[in-house]
Every structure is written in C-alpha cells, then in structure tokens.
Amino acid sequence: MVPPPPTNKPHVCLSTILIMSSMALMDAYLVEQNQGPRKIGVCIMVLVGDVCFLIILRYVAVWVGAEVRTAKRGYAMILWFLYVFVLEIKVYFVYQNYKADRSSLDAVARKALTLLLSICVPVLFVVLVAIDHMEYVRAFKKREEIRNRLFWVVVDLLDVLDIQANLWEPQKKGLPLWAEGLMFFYCYILLLVLPCVSLSEISMQGINIVPHKMMLYPILSLVTINVVTLFIRGGNLVFYRDARVSGILMGKNVLAIILKTCSFAQYRSQMQNSTRTFGIELQKNSVPHGRRLPPPAQVIIQDRTPLPELNACGHT
C-alpha cells in the first residue's frame, strides 16, 4: 500500500473525535432502550461494531487529512458515506424502539436525539470540506461564494433531518407504516448522496474552481429537497393533521424555490450573453488579421527585379 502524503493532524483528530463521539451517544441510546439480559448483548454488539468502525476510520481519516490542502475530496466522500451509512442504521433501531414503546413519552431524550443529529451531521460536513484550508483558492470573492454555497448545503441537511425527526418525536397519532418507512429511507438516501455531490463538484473542478459552474447540487436539491419536502410537510399537515410540521422550514422551501429558479434563469442568460460576445470578438479579430498579410505579388516583383541586370552583364 502506498504511504499517504503528510497529513493535517488537527483535522484528522477533529473529524475522528466528532465521528466517534456521535457514535458513542447513539450507542448510549441503544443500550438504554433495552433492559435486562438483552441490555448486555446490545452493549457487546455496539462495542464490537465501534471497534471495527474505528479500524476502518483509522485509515480513511488519514487519507482525508492528507487531501485537505489539495483540490481532491475523494476520501472525504468515502468517509461521509461510511459515517452516514452506519449512523443512520443506529438511528433506525432507536426510532423503532421508540415506536414499539409509545407509552414512553420522554420528550427530552427525543428532542436531545434531534439536537445531536442536527449538530454532528452538518459540522462533520463543514470539517470535511475545510474551506479555510483551501489555499489554492486565492481569490477572496471565490472563497466567499463557495462558503455561501456550502451554507445552503448545511441548511438542506437540517431540512432533511427535521423531516426525519418527525418520526421519533412525541406524536398523538402516528403516520401509516408505509409512509413512515418511505419517509425515513428517502431522508436516508438524501443524507448519503447529496453531500457527496457537493464534495464531488469541488473535487472535479480542481484548482481552477469556478463557482458559477457548480450547478449540479443546486438542481438536485431544488427537486429532491425543496419541492419534495414541501409536499411531504404539506401532506402531513393536510391529511394527518400533524402539528409538528415546521412552518418556518416550509417557508424556507418556498423561498429557496423562488431564489434558485431566479438564479438558474440569470445563469442561463449570462451564458447566452457570454457566447454572443465571444462570437463577436472572434469576427472582429479575424478581419484585421487577414489584412496584415503582405500580398504575394509584391514578393514576386522584388525577387525578379535584379534579373535584367544580370542578363545585360552576360551579353557584354
């Protein structure tokens, strides 16, 4: 195996501590939800799983720390996918335990679970992006524009987590089983894929980052988050009378749809104008370039002028 380049040790330590602390808190939820002999078995299972995860994390986190100062984010995508994949499995079992024991209305613990996810997941994404370590992005304007785009990714993550948190927070009337399962796994897929898309946009452009060309994530988030989650919240509010639906995030979805649609229209008009101006400049530059060439007739006359003198000398 090729040894990794020099790593950023503070970045590796910070990401490792954040990941393992969130995993440990989820393990505490799983252990506390079980009683008797089953509690010991669950404790052994989560410890073995954490040891295996820590072994894998030891190698992946080192490579993530090695690419912090570069334009690549390949191992960051691998680490994000691995972290969310394991974390959401634990969240699913916690959610199922709360669903099986509806008599336990420990609202503080359920709200604390939502708070834990809403802090750890976006913070880890910001750490993996490491915008402050992008030394190759020297223009302050470009760095600020990338930071604004990453802010939208964080807001979208909070939006998805809010949809998912409606499943385990206290509720008077539960949703149908198929609706709950569909909602959980839809949020699961979004948490797995969309942040990786944002990281890949940064990685594919390399050193010459052009923020206005990073349009794949805004298009996907417009459809999968702002439009779909608006319908999910509206359906829960209309059909199931769910009082826990966040009206603020519904307003956020409406505003995001309007703003992103306007930005897409502006981007398209800018691309059309840039194409037209580029074509006009090519036409202007091609005309004087042809006139600067010397006519071939002058060259022929200059080369043949001394010929009569040579012939005269030969006759004498």
From TrEMBL:
Keyword Membrane: yes
Keyword annotations from UniProtKB, A to Z: Membrane, Transmembrane, Transmembrane helix
UniProt key word Membrane: yes
InterPro entries (UniProt xref): CECR6/TMEM121, TMEM121
Transmembrane segments: 12-30, 42-62, 74-93, 113-131, 183-202, 214-233
One Pfam entry name: CECR6_TMEM121
Residues forming coiled coils: none
PANTHER family, per database record: TRANSMEMBRANE PROTEIN 121
Stated family: Belongs to the TMEM121 family.
Name of the protein described by the UniProt record: Transmembrane protein 121
Source organism (scientific name): Aldrovandia affinis
